[in-house]
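ingest -> validate -> predict -> emit
validate: passed (alphabet ok, no gaps, 383 aa)
predict: started
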Amino acid sequence: MASRTRSTSWAGQIFPTIRWIPCKSGDAAAAANCCWSSTPPRWAVTLRNSRWSSEVRGCSNRASMIRSFLFLLLILSFPLSAKDRTVQVFILAGQSNMEGHGRISGPQKGTLETLSQDPATAERYRHLQSNDSWVTREDVWITWLERKGKLGVGGWAAKGAIGPELGFGWVVGDFLDAPVLLLKFGPGGTSLAGPWRPPGAGPHRNGKPRGEGIGNQYDHLISSVKDRLANLSREFPELAGYQPRLAGFGWHQGWNDGCSKPDCLEYEANLAHLIRDIRRDLKAPGLPFVIAGSGFGGWGQKIDRRLMIMKAQEAVTRYDEFRDTTRYVETRSFFRDGPVSPRPIRFHWCCNAETYWLIGEGMGRAMVELLGGPRAPANPERP
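emit:
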C-alpha cells in the first residue's frame, strides 16, 4: 500500500462559535444572561482550540458582534514569539521491541494490512488510511538510526514493520497543538543491566568497566539527544525557529534482563536509577516517564524471571518520588499468540501489528495523562 500525506496544522485548529443567549420571561437562569429587559438577545463570540478558548459577550446589535469576532481573529493572527514556538520532544527507548517488528503487509493474521481489511478490526485502523494509501502525519517528526522524517506507517522500525512509535505518535500528536518530535532508540539484544546501565547503578557485578556492553547505549542516548536538541534546524529545516522542549520519555525493554536471574534481581533498582539519571543528565527534572510492561506470553506467562521483570517495572512507578510523574502500561492483554499472528516468535510479540499498535497507543494515552490531558484507561487485570 502506498503512502499518502495528511495535512495537519500543528498550530492547532481554531474553531469559531457564534451563539445567541435568549432572555425568557420568568426564567431566572436565562434572565441572568441578559443585560436588561428591553435589549436584543445577548450574544457570545468564542474562538477555541483543544487547549484554550477566548470569549467576548455583549448585548448590542449584530454589527457589534461581528466587530468583536474580527477583533479576536486579529489578535490571534499575530505571530507567536520564538519562546512560544516550541516543538514537543519525546524519547522512545528500549531494545528490539521498541525497534518494532509488527508486520505491515501480507495475508497472515495480525498484519496491519489484514487488520485494516478485516471488518472486525478495520474501524480501529481507518485513520491510518486515505484513498487506499497509508497516511503520513504532517505534524509529527521522528528520528530512527540515521533516518529522519515525518511519522507514517513503516520506515521507522524493522524492515516492513511498525513499532510502538506509530500508536504513541498518533495519540500524542492528536493531543498536542505544537509539532511533535520523536527521538527513537531501540538496539536489539540490549539489557538494562548491561548496555543501558545508568551511571547511578554503579559498576557491573562482573567488574567490567563502563564502555562497550556496559552503559554504552545509555551514554549514546544522552549525547545523541543533546546534539539533536542543540541542532534542531540542521536536522529538521521545517522546524527552524522552533525551540525544542523535552516533554516525555517512553521505555519498552526487558526481554534480555528476563533471561538472567541476576539481572532480574537488580532490574527494579536499575530502572529507578535510569529515571533519575535521565532526568539529571538531560536537565529535565520531573520528566514524564511511561513504562510499557514486558508482557510477552500474555496472562498465561508463568516463567518466574518474566514475572519478576513486570513486577519490577510496575513497582518503580509506585515509588513516592515517581508516583505523580510515571505510569506503567500493562501489556499482557495485548499479546496475540502464534496461531493469530504472522510469526510464532514470542520475544518479538509474534510480529503482530495489533500488539505493537496497542502498546504504542497505551503508552501515548498514559503520556497524555501525565501532560495534563484525559485520564488514561485503567490497566486491565488478569481475566
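The first strand starts at residue 3 and ends at 6.
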